[in-house]
Specification:
five-stranded parallel sheet; four-stranded parallel sheet; globular
Length: 332
């Protein structure tokens, strides 16, 4: 499998075989990390990490992955570059492409990372856009495969707001890999109809299914994976909180939901999660709305079924695989 020089912008661009190759490579790199076997084959290479949105897991995963592989990494935070302000995306891409061997972008519209990829001349990796989050998908799929030993036939239920990057990306990943994807939420929060139809095309080839439903009990019954995300994304205005809490509270992941899924089910969340009042925003929301949690209860988050920290760790291993595969020259 040769992915050298490829961009990693959305899993729509990759075949089932290519995605599985990246997961296999991530598993090998993870094993080497655990055994203390170095994989620093990329000394002399450097990557630029553009973050228009702050991050914990994505930034740390890229920086540690680059360091482990012998690369240098330059972090450009929200105020760290002139891209889109005093310098166009096109010009920024061409400058960075002359200095770096790869570029990561985490920020806003998918059109931005697409434009970077068009002009950079080196691999560009999507660390998150409003529409897609492909590096998270690899971490999720690796975690699921570690837990169940397979991906095909796994039933994944996404509860909450399925309109944006997480709902979109999970639907793409599941439909490509022969998994059964269920979006469980009010109709207003269903994924984009055009993308649903595109994914149904992928599903027809892989044996996957796509279900959109408002019925929590039917959706979660015998599910393998219950997945959720925060209800309000970074940068969204405060006034949306009350509406989201009111409309999405019936889709909170509770002990009852997990019991309906069954003992075999696992809980996943891309993090950060509002499962208690130990954060500034969590405390504020608790005071404003009289709640103790939002998209998931603390009881579920801290339970044995919760694999969120395995999932978070796997961000690093799968990002390492993406960089190694697209930069090439990796040796077993």
């Amino acid at each position: 499998m040769n992915l050298k020089g490829r961009n990693f912008l959305t899993l729509k661009d990759f075949t089932k075989e290519e995605i599985l190759y990246l997961l296999d490579l991530a598993a090998k790199l993870k094993e080497k990390k655990k055994k203390g076997i170095p994989v620093d084959h990329y000394r002399g290479k450097n990557v630029a990490l553009i973050f228009e949105k702050d991050s914990t897991r994505t930034r740390c995963a890229f920086e540690v992955a680059a360091c482990d592989m012998g690369m240098g990494a330059t972090y450009l935070g929200p105020t760290g570059s002139q891209m889109g302000k005093k310098e166009s995306i096109e010009d920024t891409a061409r400058v960075l492409g002359r200095m770096y061997d790869g570029i990561e972008y985490r920020g806003f519209g998918q059109n931005i990372v697409e434009e970077l990829a068009k002009y950079a001349g080196v691999p560009v990796w999507n660390g998150l856009t409003n529409e897609f989050h492909p590096t998270q998908m690899l971490a999720d799929m690796l975690t699921i495969r570690e837990q169940f030993g397979r991906l095909e036939g796994i039933r994944l239920v996404y509860m909450g707001d399925a309109r944006f990057n997480m709902g979109n990306s999970l639907m793409v990943a599941c439909s490509k890999l022969g998994m059964h994807f269920v979006a469980c939420t009010v109709k207003e929060y269903f994924p984009n109809a055009e993308l649903v139809e595109q994914c149904r095309g992928y599903a027809a080839e892989s044996g996957a299914t796509i279900t959109l439903t408002e019925d929590v009990e039917a959706a979660s019954k015998d599910a393998d994976v219950i997945y959720t995300d925060v209800w309000v994304s970074m940068g969204e205005p405060d006034h949306v909180w009350e509406k989201r809490i009111r409309e999405l509270t019936p889709y909170k992941v509770t002990k009852k939901v997990m019991e309906n899924a069954g003992e075999q089910a696992i809980f996943l969340h891309c993090l950060p999660a509002f499962h208690d009042l130990k954060t500034t925003i969590g405390k504020e929301m608790g005071e404003r709305f009289g709640i103790e949690d939002m998209e998931v209860t603390d009881e579920v988050f801290e339970s044995a079924q919760s694999k969120v920290f395995d999932e978070a760790e796997n961000r690093m291993h799968t990002i390492k695989a993406v960089m190694a595969a697209t930069l090439g020259e990796y040796e077993e």
